[in-house]
Recover the amino acids of this structure.
């Protein structure tokens, strides 16, 4: 037994992560010391970021920005899900539709959807809905393609079993197709969420500077690097938290795939 | 389930399909009808698109004309070469950094536990938040753009390579050692071939992410390359030109995606044959 | 065998497939002019070499594949309903991995619109019958192959079909499990008074299980021999596999099969 194995419970947990904690603390301290020697218009350090974070939070600026950003994110993402899942199901079910859409799907699949932002600005303007449209656009395709991929990966034999037991089309959809492709839907939802976050930030950079992206641009042109880092930190934390949640949901959705994954 | 059918060695039927009336299956007729529908749509767009306010829309023949203009003036070629240069450099650095870092993180548990979470965070969080900082530090230069492409592309590669190293089948390594392979030979003969498919997947994702990063960089970090040309055109309400650039981006995206697919297929060859069982 | 109370009546059945990889070669005739009947309470084994169209025949009966011509009647009707009048037990189990054992067993009942309470009761009855009590909440990947096929059998029986079709159901399980499952199948079939058509390529299995063995020839598939196996009812109570006359029937079936195999 190693000394580590002899420890139990939280103590063992602490001991296990002690080297990592030490390294990260060391890096932060180094950053602090080195950062203080740099021009504040050019670089910053952890305690300055902490102060900026407190200032942004207490002035209400941060809270408002988070609300603005989440509104755009959730609305655009919700619309992306609402369009991506049913359209993916339809395209997966009807070969002709798939065939008809395939040139367009191919084009959207390989091209960065961000390239359409200038056109969205022309068509939708530079208001709230333009941002929602950008978020919708970037996440819709990830969801759509994953649902479609799920439909094509669903083994034919499941459908045959259902048919042999007299299932009708609606029953097949409810009892076989949807549960069968649930892991793919969940993957699409996770990837779509990651892209929606990108869409949110990019649209706030380009369209009506508000929200967390707006804070970043506002303070970066004023060379207030600590405030920029504060907003970056908030976005990274929110993004990581949302993505971790989505990943957990995805793994739950695929719990019955455990055995299949064993020989993947 | 089909896998189980074939695994137990019984004559499978999948090569022959029941004779059935075709309802939209792949066939020459379907292909032709799809082609006809697109031809009709484009013709209709060309006819009716002329009547729409040109500040909001365009139509095919105007787009073709604009393509001619942009090609003759050399703007398109300059933008395309500029974009490809930035993308190429960014991807080169991605490969140079992503492979060793991914390998190290996958191989040494200590590094994984220390820096793995950071890689995951940078993999999932929107990288675009760093754009203003890059502008601050490196100016509106190609360097900023290359760094951004690199930041966009490198994490998928690191993540996949590390994943590949972690999932090397330990029994394969043991077999190699049982045949007297030393550490270096084991890496060469077992680890490296095992992670090739993961490198393929990572490289494919890196290319796609790099292209998205390129467009974002050209929007935000000085107006340049194809993204810049696109933004200039739409700022002047030249939608015909904007469509030309988008079509060029589609073509570039298509070629890069094909390259990524080929790389993934080639590096993942042994895996595909395993999957067939 | 009396054809009067025929449970299954297959007449002049022809089935063709087209080969997509060589469309000019024309259709490939899998089954040609096939006729046979199964009386209520019979257990008919269909024995044949690989590729003789045994599986295709079952797929056509449950309408997963279309017949070119010929008729199929179950209980004197061509308008039978798969899942209600006839149920198929699949070779590779055909369980839904996202459903628990209980949910898999209740699947056919659910498709028929049976109310939840009744479904639960019927499902439990057949889970108990196949010896899976205690595993109701398990997912297919958590149980062995033999147990998975018990689920497949319970799912089919729970629909109380007039005719039970089984497509090499024990081909994917190990030899010992297979023998145990065969004996249990005989018990279950007797308890539920089922009429069974059982496709296999194992001669011993066909003779042990069947009250009648149909030997199919290949390319195109047709009935080459119809061998009664009078080993008596309640065969599962004593192991007829130890008896000399079992070996005689096996020999007879083997000769019939040899005659049709290339």
């Amino acid at each position: 037994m190693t000394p580590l194995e002899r420890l139990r419970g939280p103590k063992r947990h602490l001991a296990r992560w002690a080297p990592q904690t030490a390294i990260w603390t060391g890096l932060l301290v180094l950053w602090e010391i080195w950062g203080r020697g740099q021009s504040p218009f050019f670089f910053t350090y952890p305690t300055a970021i902490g102060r900026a974070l407190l200032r942004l939070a207490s002035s209400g600026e941060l809270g408002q920005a988070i609300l603005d950003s989440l509104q755009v994110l959730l609305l655009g993402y919700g619309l992306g899900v609402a369009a991506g899942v049913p359209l993916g199901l339809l395209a997966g079910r009807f070969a002709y539709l798939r065939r008809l859409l395939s040139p367009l799907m191919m084009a959207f699949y390989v091209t960065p959807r961000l390239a359409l932002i200038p056109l969205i600005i022309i068509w939708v303007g530079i208001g709230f809905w333009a941002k929602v449209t950008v978020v919708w656009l970037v996440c819709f395709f990830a969801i759509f393609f994953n649902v479609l991929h799920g439909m094509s990966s669903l083994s034919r034999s499941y459908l045959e079993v259902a048919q042999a037991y007299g299932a009708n089309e609606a029953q097949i959809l409810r009892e076989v197709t949807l549960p069968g492709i649930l892991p793919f839907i969940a993957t699409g939802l996770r990837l779509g969420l990651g892209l929606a976050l990108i869409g949110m930030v990019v649209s706030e950079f380009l369209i009506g500077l508000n929200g967390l992206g707006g804070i970043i641009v506002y303070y970066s042109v004023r060379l207030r690097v600590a405030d920029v880092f504060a907003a970056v930190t908030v976005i990274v934390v929110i993004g990581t938290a949302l993505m971790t949640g989505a990943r957990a949901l995805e793994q739950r959705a695929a719990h019955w795939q455990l055995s299949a994954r064993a020989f993947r | 389930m089909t896998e189980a059918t074939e695994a137990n060695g019984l004559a499978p039927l999948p090569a022959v399909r029941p004779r059935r009336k075709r309802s939209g299956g792949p066939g020459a007729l379907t292909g032709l009808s799809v082609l006809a529908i697109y031809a009709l749509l484009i013709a209709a767009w060309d006819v009716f698109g002329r009547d729409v306010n040109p500040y909001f829309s365009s139509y095919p023949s105007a787009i073709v004309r604009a393509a001619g203009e942009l090609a003759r003036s050399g703007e398109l070629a300059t933008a395309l070469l500029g974009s490809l240069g930035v993308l190429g450099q960014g991807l080169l650095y991605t490969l140079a950094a992503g492979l060793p870092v991914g390998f190290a993180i996958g191989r040494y548990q200590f590094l994984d536990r220390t820096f793995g979470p950071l890689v995951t965070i940078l993999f999932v969080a929107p990288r675009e938040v760093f754009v203003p900082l890059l502008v601050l530090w490196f100016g509106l230069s190609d360097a900023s753009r290359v760094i951004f492409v690199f930041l966009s592309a490198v994490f998928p590669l690191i993540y996949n390579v590390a994943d590949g190293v972690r999932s090397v089948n330990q029994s394969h390594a043991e077999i190699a050692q049982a045949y007297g392979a030393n550490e270096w030979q084991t890496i060469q003969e077992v680890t490296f071939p095992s992670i090739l498919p993961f490198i393929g997947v990572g490289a494919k994702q890196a290319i796609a992410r790099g292209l998205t990063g390129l467009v974002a960089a050209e929007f935000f970090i000085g107006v340049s390359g194809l993204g810049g040309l696109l933004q200039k055109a739409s700022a002047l309400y030249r939608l015909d030109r904007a469509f030309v650039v988008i079509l060029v981006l589609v073509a570039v995206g298509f070629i890069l995606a094909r390259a990524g697919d080929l790389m993934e297929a080639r590096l993942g060859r042994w895996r595909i044959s395993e999957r067939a069982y | 065998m009396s054809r009067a109370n025929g449970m299954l009546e297959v007449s002049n059945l022809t089935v063709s497939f087209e080969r997509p990889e060589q469309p000019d070669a024309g259709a490939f005739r899998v089954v040609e002019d096939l006729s046979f009947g199964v009386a209520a309470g019979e257990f008919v084994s269909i024995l044949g070499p690989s590729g003789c169209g045994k599986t295709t025949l079952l797929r056509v009966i449950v309408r997963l594949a279309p017949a070119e011509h010929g008729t199929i009647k179950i209980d004197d009707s061509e308008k039978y309903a798969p899942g209600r009048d006839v149920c198929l037990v699949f070779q590779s189990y055909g369980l839904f991995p996202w459903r628990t054992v209980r949910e898999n067993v209740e699947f056919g009942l659910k498709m028929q619109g049976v109310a939840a309470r009744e479904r639960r009761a019927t499902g439990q009855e057949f889970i108990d019958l196949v010896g899976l009590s205690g595993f109701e909440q398990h997912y297919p990947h958590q149980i062995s192959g033999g147990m998975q096929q018990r689920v497949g059998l319970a799912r089919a029986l729970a629909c109380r079909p007039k005719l039970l079709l089984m497509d090499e159901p024990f081909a994917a399980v190990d030899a010992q499990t297979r023998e145990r499952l065969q004996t249990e199948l005989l018990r279950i079939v007797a308890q539920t008074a089922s009429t069974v058509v059982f496709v296999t390529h194992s001669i011993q299995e066909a003779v042990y299980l069947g009250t009648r063995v149909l030997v199919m020839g290949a390319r195109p598939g047709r009935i080459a021999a119809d061998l009664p196996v009078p080993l008596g009812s309640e065969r599962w109570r004593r192991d007829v596999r130890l008896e000399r006359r079992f070996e005689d029937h096996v020999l007879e079936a083997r000769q019939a099969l040899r005659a049709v195999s290339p």
Chain B has two domains: 28-56, 60-276. Chain B is about 80% helix and 0% strand.
